[in-house]
Amino acid sequence: MAGLIQAGNISLTAWVPSVHSRAVYAQSPVRRFTRWLEHTRIDVHALYGPLIQQAIAEWGDQRVYLALDTSMWWHTDGLVRLSLVYRGRAIPMVWTVLDPPSSSVAYDVYKELLDKVVEWLPVGCTVVLTAARGFADTHLRQHLTGLGWHWRIRIKGSFWLDRQGKRRCKVNRIPLSPGKALFWHHVYLTKQGYGPVHLAMGRPLSRQEYWFVVSDEPTDEKTFEAYGLRFDIEENFLDDTSNGFQLESSLMRSANALERLCGVLASTTLYLVAQGTAVVAQGKRRWVDSHWFRGQSYLKIG
Questions:
Q1: What angle do CA 72, 159, 135 make, to 5 degrees?
Q2: Within its chain, how far is the Cα of 216 from the centroid?
Q3: What does the alpha-carbon distance between residue 124 and residue 56 come to, in Å, rounded to a whole number?
Q4: Angstrom distance (rounded) from CA 203 to CA 180
């Protein structure tokens, strides 16, 4: 973490000056980094879990939003990450590295991640999970219901829709003019008739795409707002790569090493966001941020 913060990017050789040891050769600490990243008995979630648990322990009965999404690197590896939405950004909670990558991930790949998060969330908090179309799986929704979580998940227009007294049709056959939205309650999805669920459908004025968001709670305009929080995880992915730590420039290809490297990134992100939040709370933001009003993320301020 110290090397990553000092160097500003992911480079094992750039981290060497941050190491204090009796090693004579520069290769020695680099080999130590490599052995740690490749060590299969190191459980990064067991190390990171208590940190994030302590950070949010006092949130109490607040409504907590989580974002589930994927990211791909070099077209050879991918990441599934469940993050905590926080002030325009997302802080990693749990993750797994995929080889080969995919934007549509099977439920069996990430179901254990959901159970790990349960242990770290504050007792009594209300959890709302947001996810993109690649996670529109009935098994996921059943799992979330069993955990007592709420959810806002976008679905594809090819999903079948059943309404009481209406003929079954595909969601994308519902006529919607630009700038309009529809909110239907107690409907059933897929040919297997999963439900009842609640559906929000919208067509933005500025885009040609349609939005279909399914929810376990009655839908209204705020459903789109809640689902929109999912995009904060995109900023988190950017912080990992081109907008921050330059993960892709590390050229690492080992899924094991990337899994542990993501643990280093998560711990560093949590520390910097906490530091940035404290700086702003103490009224010292302008000591490090040149903007008149806050122009940098809490991570960058940290």
A1: 30
A2: 20
A3: 12
A4: 6
Whole-Å CA distances, 213 to 18, 153, 157, 241, 289: 47, 5, 10, 29, 37
224 in Cβ contact with 202 (< 8 Å): yes
Tell me if 97 sits within 8 A of 262, measured CB to CB.
yes
Q: Confirm if 87 and 150 have CB atoms less than 8 A apart.
A: no
Kindly report the length of the chain.
Answer: 302
CATH of domain 43-230: 3.90.350.10
pLDDT tens-digit series, residues 165-185: 888 999 999 988 889 999 999
In this predicted model, what pLDDT tens digit does every residue of 38-96 receive, in sequence order? Answer: 999 999 999 999 999 999 998 888 899 999 999 887 767 788 999 999 988 899 999 99
pLDDT per position as a tens digit, 124-156: 899 999 999 889 999 999 999 999 999 999 999
Report the pLDDT value the prediction gives residue 103, as an integer from 0 to 100: 60
- In 3D space, the residue among 277, 291, 151 whose CA is nearest the CA of residue 217 turns out to be 151
For residue 96, give both structure tokens: 């797994």
Task: Quote helix, strand, coil % in the chain, to nearest 5.
Answer: 40, 25, 35
